[in-house]
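How it folds
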Amino acid sequence: MSIDNLRNALPEYAKDQKLNLGSLTRSTELNEQQLWGTLVASAAATRNATVISEITDEAKEHLSEEAIDAAFGAATVMAMNNVAYRAKGWLGDDYANVKFGLRMNIISKPGVEKADFELWSLAVSTINGCEHCAVAHANTVREEGLTKEQVWESIKVAGVVQAVAQTITIEDVR
């Protein structure tokens, strides 16, 4: 069990994250695809090879190959969009109407339910610190019928996965 590998790799100073990761993977707030897709997309957003590998290995027991690809797709398209939309915000009104000009077809055809892909995009956007994208994806998932609690659950997953990745990175260089 790969989540257990991650939990067992966490030192005492990250005990909270060890417990958080355990409880979030047993959460019933999200359905199985929403939860495990959020875990995979968040892992990809951390850029930590160990976290990506361990979470994806276990996710294969819970997700189809298409869903795993969609979660990776959410992470990669948000890597691009989060940079671009944050920059547009920093640059001000002069750039508000400049054509985006980059392909992002996966958003309209992700291979999974729209709400799930948007939820994963929300989680990644919070890791990447893009307020514009986080707000947009939160609004979309709410319009698709998800609750505030489900939105928050995905953000909790993103935060814990990011904290686990940071801990693994710290321990790798100690």
The domain at 2-173 is CATH 1.20.1290.10 (AhpD-like).
